[in-house]
Amino acid sequence: MRTLENLNWRYATKKFDATKKISDADLNTLLEVVNLAPSSYGLQPLKVLVIENKEIREKLKEKSWNQAQVTDASHLLVLCSYLKFEEKHINDHIENTASIREMDAALLKGYGDFMKNAIGNLSDEQQKNWNSKQTYIALGHLLDACAEMRIDSVPMEGFDPAGYDEILHLTAQNLHASLVCPIGYRSEEDATQHQKKVRKDWCLHSRCSSFVFLSFEALLILFLRILFYIKPIDLSGEIHGNSENNENSNTSEN
After folding, report:
1. Model's pTM, two decimal places?
2. Rounded distance, CA 83 to CA 145, Å?
3. How far is CA 184 from CA 13, 31, 98, in A?
4. What is the Cα gyration radius of the chain?
5. Pick from 147, 133, 151: which is nearest to 17 by CA?
6. What is the pLDDT confidence band of residue 220, given thresholds at 50, 70 and 90?
7. Are strands 46-51 and 75-82 parallel, antiparallel or unpaired?
8. Which of 1, 39, 127, 182 has its CA 20 to 30 A from that of 136?
């Protein structure tokens, strides 16, 4: 399966080759992947900033525990979530949906009101967390696409969000730095690329245990039915045995 091959190929790149750059065409493809990623209600409460300016990236590196990937990668992507999702954003989404699908926006009013009520009932902190979660969905699709295109990446939470917000003037834009993802091409000197992946297999074990348990239960019931000629319980709660053992029974069998 190509997907598994891609996932085994990729890794969290520790050292990028600073001389290699991603083409504009490939970069645009990755950005379109993020744009096509699903989000709650399809509202997309996020934006992706592409940081290429070296001076800005040096400043951001200081707010990223001086991790070299921030400056050495071909491009630095900053996934930002909305601080506040307002009714205007929902109205814009309804109008955009009606335009693209060539339908009357009035038909979507009920759905729009539902979203306004659901999101409006969230506290500021709950809404901030909800918005931030949408960036993680987008990040997953971004990482998959990078692997498919043999572009290296490293998702990062190890940075100072407030520092990024200040340097990139995000608060004034109703944005907050949620995730950082340098992308580019691995350096031959990055020894990490040769290390085996370490993953838990608890999910597979859990699934197998459940399957074995169900299979054992089914086999036990089958064994008891064969041994004792047990038939299903009728509505009266009586268990009917083999007809040979019920010759004196007044209960007729159907």
Report:
1. 0.80
2. 27
3. 9, 14, 38
4. 28
5. 151
6. low
7. antiparallel
8. 1
